[in-house]
Amino acid sequence: MQAIIVGNRDAGVAGMTLTHDLPYPHAAENDVIVKVHAAGFTPGELDWPGTWTDRAGRDRTPSVPGHELSGVIVELGYGTTGLTVGQRVFGLADWTRNGTLAEYTAVEARNLAPLPADIDYIVAAALPISGLTAWQGLFDHARLTTGQTVLIHGAAGGVGSIAVQLAREAGARVIGTGRARDRDRALTFGVHTFLALDTEPLEQAGEVDVVFDVIGGDVLDRSTTLVRAGGTLVTIAMPPTIQPDNGRAVFFVVEPNRTQLTELATRLRDGRIKPAVGAVRPLAEAPDAFNPGRHSPGKTIIRVSEE
């Protein structure tokens, strides 16, 4: 089958190639095989240890990158329940197994959720990591509630834009940040106030109940001073080195969750959230899409196969 493979970690993006000879995947117990229609990726994933090793730490190169997918189930592994052959699904592939930039991929069934027939594969592939990260950061870790104020860094990006929409729906006041060029996009997603970090002081935000950080570094450190007593800072960028006074700081890595994926799909159908989909490119152009110099608004999606 066709797939994008990376031969070794030292080669990076330059080592990504399109192959027509990757073996069809094996469905282990509680797995499904998905015919991938659309796939998403994280540009920095070639730096993740799991891209190169299995769960036991053994080398598994060449590796297939990509972790978000939408498609159709074509095979069930032994013991798999809750999903059926021919069903449309979307979700996350495992971090330490071959990913989604391939015509077919093996995924643990629990990592997938049913995809309603009226949601496009391209849009669905943009939702799993951004949507789950936003949901888990706001509600599982920060416990955001109605009437609170949340400061969301990177409000026009993939994760930040979903976090803005979920926070608005929850009845929170939303302050978004980004570059000055991101102001209009962030306002479109629903921020009440926008701060351009390249032209305005972060401290202008004032005290907030929740900070959602995707940037790290100096922005993360300075954000700790904005968390009011009893508040929470959540970050996906790096473990925080400073704790807020009378508050807490949490670093987390997104986890698959079928229930939350289903909730996100419902909101997508109802028009309550909209992923920031950017360029849509064919599988053969995936290596170029990974190139760090290829910046474009929204999340780039790879169209792997037609319906």
TrEMBL record:
Gene3D superfamilies reported in the protein's UniProt record: Medium-chain alcohol dehydrogenases, catalytic domain (3.90.180.10), NAD(P)-binding Rossmann-like Domain (3.40.50.720)
Source organism, top-level taxon: Bacteria
UniProt region (Disordered), positions on chain: 286-307
Record CDD domains: MDR_like_2
Domain named Enoyl reductase (ER): residues: 12-302
Signal peptide as annotated in the record: none
The name this protein goes by in its record: NADP-dependent oxidoreductase
Keyword annotations from UniProtKB, A to Z: Oxidoreductase
